[in-house]
Amino acid sequence: MQQPQTATALSKEMQDCVEACMSCHSICEETMSSCLQMGGQAQMQIMRALMDCTEMTRICADMTMRRSPMAAEMCRMCAKACDMCAEACMAMPEDPQMMRCAEACRRCAEMCRTMAGAAA
Q: What's the whole-number mean pLDDT along residues 85-113?
């Protein structure tokens, strides 16, 4: 009787990228909620960046986990979205939630760039 084939484990780089994406996704979601409570017109640009980053990190994690042939390209796009979000969050340096979000975005961008380079 043959054993069912199991998928090979994700590489350390893939695992790090997925974890960074999911962490960034969660923090961006929390930060969106915080922004909505603050209100104000200035937050609209930040909200757009947060929404883009939230979606990109989720998709990037999904594509990496399923080993999509487009994962490296998605990682490059995700890194760009994370960089833009970090920059937007830096517009409010007095807000601790924004600073946590910017830090998570920077880490995710770094991991995604690593994955894009490793998979290229």
A: 96
